[in-house]
Design brief:
Number of helices: 22
Oligomer: single chain
Radius of gyration: 30 Å
Largest sheet: none
Distance between the termini: 90 Å
Number of strands: 0
Mean pLDDT: 80
Length: 535
């Protein structure tokens, strides 16, 4: 009998396939680690300086509000990501340029508009486009995960940046340490002598105060948090640019192909249902809404209110049906592809007419009750769904390769256009115009809009003008934001209201907020129920 070996088998250095793996070994790599194209090399020096600049700008500028400062902070972070991408051998592709330029363009919305809701949409969309620019995804799953993928690089980016700083502090005779000490001394000298010169001359003090942020001890922790946030974001962007995650590599199993009859029969029945409904809609459009009112005893607003939300949900559900139909579509050959294009193309075309009918109903409702934030928002969503249908029809003709990125680009373009048109300003203009056409006006609602509505509200006659603008004017007077945290809409409102005294007390405005009781084409109604607006 051979004697047992004195050294265990797992310690003999045998090849991996010839021994049992220890349960305490290294854990398997994560999904993002397996999907990263390459392992990132040493961090580029330019990326470290860009991250430091982003952190300092975030600390100095973002604590005072939101405006042009977002774009200023994003520029060095974008430059650091570009440097790392070039160092990793990545080339600038057309879609990468589209995502990057589009993301920076979206950050112009906070600099132009004072309203918070389009600003929030623009900020979220800019972050998603920036993440897409770093990853360069193409498929549906890749575009969706790529818009969020930058968050997976936060911890790796911090470790990557810290390792690069340690290497540079210890190597090359500590050149980074010398630079940091020199910068610190320069900052101290500027602060000391700047304070002396500011106290010696009032004009220089005003200039210095307008150019530098107002930093106090109380908001120190908040500014430190903003600086760390900027540092983490810049390093995560640089790390992703150097080693992007290939989200397109995630496997997606195709759906099981169905037979022609099993697949086409439900869709053909759905097309017939759509056609019957739209035939009635065309009859209404040709016969006029007076005929509908005579036959159904419904007002313009009631007719619009009954159908808009149903048509909106019908559009959304139709897009879901199209997605599932494409997953289970027959894939036998040319005849199957022709069948799929004909059936789904007809469904898309009929759904476009549904979109037009829904927008027409919303137009009737706005004509009866005025424009509000929720009404303009849902109308914009319905219009974007129509754009998606057009893109699907184009993909059926030219191929679906660009469809995921085209849908993402249309969403970003819609958010950008929504912010640039100034929704609050458009709401104020439409309601003021309705008032000039002898409709009622809801001052209580209009005075809650942002400073973007001031140019339109300023054209109202007194005392409506004073009552609509007094809250906005009071808010502008109480805010003292620097130039980089002030939007163009807010600056324009300040110029309009600079030398204006309302001359009316708040109690004088109570009887003017009569609201809009639904004056429709010169006629009144007792219907004051509004399911669209929660405000």
């Amino acid at each position: 009998m051979p004697e047992p070996p004195e050294i265990p088998a797992y310690a003999t250095g045998r090849p991996h396939g010839q021994m049992q793996q220890s349960p305490w070994g290294k854990p398997p790599p994560s999904v993002t680690t397996r999907l990263r194209a390459v392992k990132p090399g040493p961090v580029h020096t330019g990326a470290l300086w860009a991250a430091l600049a982003t952190a300092l700008l975030s600390m100095a500028l973002l604590g005072d509000g939101i405006g042009l400062n977002l774009l200023i902070v994003a520029l060095p972070a974008s430059a650091g990501a570009y440097v790392c991408a070039r160092a990793a051998g990545r080339k600038l592709r057309p879609w990468t340029a589209v995502w990057g330029i589009g993301g920076l363009a979206l950050l112009a919305v906070p600099a132009l508009r004072d309203a918070g809701w389009p600003t929030f949409l623009a900020m979220v969309s800019a972050l998603a486009l920036g993440s897409l620019a770093l990853h360069g995804s193409r498929s549906w799953l890749g575009v969706f995960l790529g818009s969020l993928g930058v968050f997976t690089s936060v911890l790796e980016g911090l470790r990557w940046g810290a390792r690069g700083v340690r290497e540079r502090m210890s190597g090359s005779r500590g050149r980074f340490g010398v630079v940091f000490r020199s910068v610190a001394v320069a900052v101290v000298l500027v602060i000391v002598f700047g304070a002396l010169f500011a106290s010696a001359d009032a004009a220089f003090a005003d200039l210095l105060g307008s150019l530098t942020p107002d930093v106090s001890v109380g908001d120190g922790p908040w500014r430190i948090f903003l600086g760390l946030l900027g540092l983490v974001g810049a390093l995560a962007a640089a790390y992703t640019a150097a080693a992007p995650v290939r989200w397109d590599g995630l496997p997606v199993r195709p759906g099981k192909a169905r037979g022609r009859l099993e697949w086409a029969l439900p869709l053909i029945v759905l097309n017939l249902l759509f056609a019957a409904f739209l035939t009635i809609q065309l009859t209404v459009l040709l016969g006029g809404y007076d005929k509908v009112m005579a036959e159904t005893d419904l007002s313009y607003s009631e007719y619009a209110r009954q159908g808009f939300w149903q048509l909106l949900w019908a559009t959304v559900l139709t897009l879901g049906v199209i997605a599932l139909a494409l997953r289970w579509a027959p894939r036998g050959g040319t005849r199957d592809r022709t069948l799929v294009r004909c059936v789904l193309g007809t469904l898309c075309l009929l759904t476009l007419v549904v979109v037009a009918s829904a927008l027409r109903r919303m137009d009737l409702y706005v004509d009866a009750y005025g424009l509000t934030r929720l009404r303009i928002s849902v109308a914009a969503v319905e219009l974007w769904l129509g754009v998606i249908l057009v893109l699907i029809m184009a993909a059926g003709v030219f191929g679906p390769r660009l469809l995921p990125r085209a849908v993402a680009a249309s969403a970003a373009a819609g958010v950008l256009a929504f912010g640039l048109i100034s929704p609050d300003g458009l709401i104020a203009e439409q309601n003021v115009q309705r008032y000039r056409n002898d409709h009622a006006i809801d001052i209580e609602y209009l005075k809650g809009l942002s400073a973007d509505a001031v140019p339109a509200l300023d054209t109202l006659p007194e005392p409506l003008r004073s009552c609509a603008l007094q809250d906005i004017r009071r808010e502008l007077q109480n805010s003292d934001e620097p130039w980089y945290a002030t939007s163009w809409g807010e600056a324009r409102a300040r110029d309009i209201l600079a030398d204006w005294d309302p001359g009316f007390r708040a109690s004088d405005c109570r009887g003017l907020s009569t609201g809009d009781s639904g004056d429709e084409r010169g006629g009144g109604t007792d219907d004051v129920y509004d399911p669209y607006d929660p405000y």
